[in-house]
Write a structure and sequence with these properties.
The protein is of the alpha/beta class. The strands form 2 sheets. Strands 1, 2, 3, 5 and 6 form a 5-stranded antiparallel sheet that branches. Strands 7-8-9-4-10 form a 5-stranded parallel sheet, sandwiched between helices. α3 runs parallel beside α5. It has 7 helices and 10 strands. The radius of gyration is 17 Å and the shape is globular. Helix content is 35%, strand content 25%. It has a single domain, classed as 3-Layer(aba) Sandwich (Rossmann fold). A hairpin with a 2-residue loop joins β5 and β6.
Length: 222
């Protein structure tokens, strides 16, 4: 299997009120293409921070990160933006939707920034996604008109419309009922099987975590 993630963090420091907190000390992760990795641990150990680092959002840490065989510190800001749009899908805990746009336009937003000439297949992918997670009835609504579960499914659809190589999930099923939880999980794992998509999931759901290939337990190191 091809290794696509090789991350070593000596330390990540962030400020909380008047003090500085150190997390992810001497942490190392290697991930091969097509792996399903779950990350679990208590609040405050750095699970979401780790996703932000893996997703090239947070570069403020001490360590090294090689992604798709390239050192990320050598990437330009344009390259980083393109990779975040086309190679990495983010399923965020918070909705992160634009309230002035319809759900459909929110989901299709990554297509506007895509360098790909193959957006026709991405639109076909859009049709397949909305059917699979049953959100066709809310496409013309705006986020403020939707429930938390509907917005969570819309965010999921937007994160996978580009068929990214890596999908990073932060509690993707937290606000969903059992039926829609299973729809999201089924589609996520279907992408993994059909397209060899790498899945990295932060979750407190032990049953969901154990359905991954590997479970990483994050702990606060002194």
């Amino acid at each position: 299997m091809t290794k696509i993630i090789d991350l070593e963090i000596q330390e990540k420091v962030y400020k909380k009120k008047k003090s500085y907190i150190s997390i992810l000390n001497n942490f190392k992760i290697e991930v091969s293409a097509g792996e399903k990795i779950a990350i679990v641990g208590k609040s405050g150990v750095g699970k979401s921070s780790l996703l932000n680092i893996l997703g090239l959002i947070d570069r403020n840490y001490t360590g090294t990160y090689t992604l798709f065989g390239l050192p990320t510190d050598k990437l330009s800001m344009k390259d980083l933006a393109n990779w975040r749009n086309e190679k990495i899908g983010f399923v965020l805990q918070e909705s992160a939707l634009i309230n002035s746009l319809t759900i459909e336009d929110n989901i299709k937003l990554p297509l506007l920034y895509s360098r790909s000439s193959d957006n026709k297949s991405k639109l076909l992918n859009f049709e397949n996604i909305i059917r699979a997670i049953d959100i066709d009835s809310i496409l013309k609504k705006k986020p403020l008109e939707c429930s938390g579960g509907e917005k969570a499914r819309a965010v999921f659809a937007r994160s996978i419309i580009m068929n990214p190589s890596i999908i990073l999930c932060d509690e993707p099923t937290a606000s969903l009922d059992i039926e829609n939880r299973e729809k999201i999980i089924d589609l996520l794992f279907k992408m993994n099987k059909e397209f060899n998509t790498t899945i990295i999931t932060v979750t407190h759901d032990n049953e969901f975590a154990n359905r991954h290939d590997k479970v990483i337990h994050l702990e606060r190191r002194k």
